[in-house]
Amino acid sequence: FIYMKKPSQPIIIDSGIPGPILTIIGWTHGNETCWVQAIDSIKDTLKIKRWKLFLIYGNIEAIEKNERQIDLNLNRMFRDESTFTANEKQTIEYKRSREIIPHLDASDASLDLHSSPSIGSPAFIICESNCAPVVEDFPFDIRCYGFTDMEPGGTDGYMNSRWKIGICVECGNHNAPDAVEKALMSVERFLQYFDMIDIQDSWIPKKSQEIFVAKYVYKTLTEDFRIVKIFSDFEDVESWQLIGYDGMEGVFAEYSGKILFARDRNQIGVEGFVVISSI
Questions:
Q1: What's the average model confidence in pLDDT over 46-61?
Q2: Strand order in the sheet with 249-252
Q3: Residue 133 near residue 190, CB atoms below 8 Å
Q4: In DSSP terms, which residues pair with 145 in a beta bridge?
Q5: Hey, is 156 helix, strand or coil?
Q6: DSSP single-letter state for residue 251
Q7: Of 29, 122, 224, 241, which one has the greatest count of Cβ atoms within 10 A?
Q8: β-pairing verdict for 242-246 and 225-227
């Protein structure tokens, strides 16, 4: 049932009380299933006390094929028109982003739910400092910021660039036992912060989060970027450590810190890896 055809328009849950609109997005990447398992369990029964909520399925075509993406990474497509090439504007992901953007424009805050293919990947939050009060009760020990400038095109960065609340959560490995739970608890915290629902039984006390900042993003120069080994998210790397090869050229970490999202890539100008550091 997970990969059945999903609606391109948002599922709208309306309290009937006018006010702000919140948006929750999942399946921005079509092989990240924790969102649908969490939201499908509540979308028909969720009652909100006030305002309006959009639930949006992200990359519809990729969802059907159980693929991360069709042409490009949808989570890099929420950018201004002037930044796209003619070829990019022909892609499935560009067209889908243009369908989603009006709903983000109508919203005051967004939550984008993700998971990772990496075994043992820690769960963490990506958001800028203006969102810190919203996420301090989320069920995560780690928060990262600095991605809006380093990695433009995510829904969180799009909202932040418009002086709104934009949050992304990585719920750990797709198949981790608690990934769905973290996705669902994130939804609860998000809605509770804006007083759209009452506090749930799963509510836990506030706790401190370890904070990291994005220091360096490597963008591929060829269609043949290969990492030298499997890097776990948050694995330690040293300055000038060999990370991979872009064509025939070695690629090295420019900073010591922890590595994220290191993957083989077959496209030019996409993220090869990110290095973050603790503050």
A1: 91
A2: 225-227, 242-246, 249-252
A3: no
A4: 213
A5: helix
A6: E
A7: 29
A8: antiparallel
Q: Say what the pLDDT of residue 1 is.
A: 46
Strands of 271-278's sheet in order across: 11-14, 52-57, 21-26, 109-116, 165-173, 124-126, 142-145, 210-219, 271-278, 257-260, 235-237
Give bridge partners of residue 173 from the DSSP assignment: 116
pTM of the entire predicted model: 0.89
pLDDT at 64: 82
Please state, in angstroms and rounded to a whole number, the distance separating the CA atoms of residues 185 and 153: 25
Concatenated DSSP letters for 191-238? HHHTTSSPPPTT-------EEEEEEEEEE-SSS-EEESSPPPTTEEE-
Residue 38, Cβ neighbours under 10 Å: how many? 24
d(CA 263, CA 23): 29
Q: What are phi and psi of 247, to 5 degrees?
A: 65, -120
Task: Tell me which of 8-17, 138-147, 204-213 is least confident.
Answer: 204-213
What is the tens place of the pLDDT at every residue in 61-108?
Answer: 888 888 889 999 999 999 999 999 999 999 999 999 999 999 999 999
CA–CA separation, 279 vs 269, rounded Å?
A: 28
SS3 call for 241: coil
Report which residue type is found at 24. Answer: I
Residue 44 has pLDDT above 50, yes or no: yes
Q: How many residues does the chain have?
A: 279
21/52 Cα distance (integer angstroms): 5
CA distance 261 to 247: 19
Instruction: State both tokens at 218.
Output: 């490597």
Structure tokens at 104: 């983000």
Q: How far apart are CA 44 and CA 146, in angstroms?
A: 36
